[in-house]
Amino acid sequence: MDTLTPLTNSGLSPEERELFSDARPVAYEPYPAKVVEGVLNWARANSMWILAFGTGCGAIEINPLMTARFDANRMGVAMRQTPRQSSVFMIGGYASVKSLKRIIRSYEQMQGPKFVVSLGICPINGGMYWDSYNTINRIDQYIPVDLYITGCMPRPEPLIAGLLELKKMIKAGKCDGANRYVQNFDWYKENQKRVIKDWNMPDYNW
Amino acid sequence: MMDWLVKIGYFLLTLGIVTVYGLLLSAFIARTIAKVQGRIGIPIYQVFIDILKNLGKRTAVSHGVMFFLGPVLRIAGGIGTLAFIPVIYGSEVYSNFSMAGDLMLVIYFVFFGQLGMALGAGEGGHPYSAIGVARGLAQMSAFELPFALAIVSIVVQYGTLSITDIVAAQQGSFWHWTLFTNPLATVAAMIAFLGMTGYSPFDVVLAPNEIPVGPPTEYHSSFLALMNTNQAIFAAAKLILFMNLFFGGATNLIELVVKTWAIYMVAIFIGVAFPRFRVDQSIRFFLRVPTLIGIASIVFVQMTFAS
């Protein structure tokens, strides 16, 4: 993969182009000492801060996670309202083209290591929106997904089961979605720009 | 020279104990709030995992020098506040750098961290940071007024600016505590304390779900870890300050833990019972009744003690 060429930021006007960074994203390098990386992975698995992106019907199922009945807090799961501080990106259901733009912006603003969980059947194959003119069918063509929780819609119980599964994967160091995004950056960008017609943001939102 | 090195060593020991205590206290409080809401809540060690995770997070964002200095100034404010408060009365190890006139210095340091935060968050460039900072500084100016009046009141009462002397004057029986000798100042300061801790109804600064998380919206990774650590130190330092000024100080660690926990519970009880104020309501609240109580306490002290 080409890591040296700066991004063109061709969606921006020449004046705006100077204001944004044209650097490419960098892959996450694990710490050389395996023990350190292991401890950090354990910490990441036990402290999952979720940025919930309520694009679709899934948003209504995410909220009860924090209530008295399900209480995801006891597993180290917490909600963060800003992409900068969160480590797990939760896509709550179908993504229209309009919200895909926001999904990409939020995802790129998150600092690594970051993980993506997608809820429901719609982001996997389109679900009931598979022939819709403004809903994308497969989310993993646009951003890398680490874990799918399927259902229409998944209730909070499968959500908790999914988060526990994600916890195991993070602990084993198997979630490499963010690195896949960096390595296949051009492919992802091409797909994104194919559906988002009014691309008026930098190529990578630092 | 040797004297100073020993003092610094003692202070580092105190700092370590207070940091761990502050973090555990914040986790305990989070659990208490969870119990009120009918939940189990976070494990007691969760705060340490959060800090470890944030330290291990990568950062690729730069907003300029002040953005990096913001958390540093903030933690300087927290450590500075603690450095001049005698933690345990009569103990050489835990007396820190307490000296004559340290009360003024401590009040300055309480303010200092907020200013650092304002500069750093301002450079972050996020609109919600700017709104949070504006709210924070406005609210702080408001609750500093009853707090400052209460401080003036007890300074007149005890005739000293040294925290150690103020604690010394309250020893003997619990009837000697400022809580009983000067209840008006205690009430005014405790209301200001509600604003300082930033729980509801005065959580207009962080205001989760309103202005996402306020000033630290752009802060992440190790910056956030630094700020979370500071939050614990700062909260514990403020609790110790209030304990020293109004509740007779502590002569051993157990007394310290019990008293600071009890003072914190005042803020928590009110926090879980009331929803958030609007910004204007919060600021006006401090400028009305608590300020009047503060003025009344000075009048009371003038009539009772300063003859």
Question: How would you describe what is shown here?
Answer:
The complex is a heterodimer of chains A (206) and B (307). Helix content of chain A is 35%, strand content 10%. With 206 residues, chain A is α/β, with parallel strands linked by helices. Chain A has one domain (14-24, 47-195): 3-Layer(aba) Sandwich (Rossmann fold). A five-stranded parallel sheet of chain A has the order 2-1-3-4-5. The longest helix of chain A is centred in the last third of the chain and has 16 residues, at 156-171. Chain A starts with 13 loop residues before the first helix and ends in an 11-residue tail after the last helix. Chain B is mainly α and 307 residues long. Chain B has one domain (2-304). In chain B, 71% of the residues lie in helices and 0% in strands. Chain B has helices spanning 2-36, 46-56, 65-83, 102-124, 127-158, 163-169, 178-181, 183-197, 221-246, 253-273, 279-287, 289-304. In chain B, helix 3 runs antiparallel to helix 4 (102-124). The radius of gyration of chain B is 19 Å and the shape is globular. The interface between A and B is medium-sized, with 26 and 30 residues.
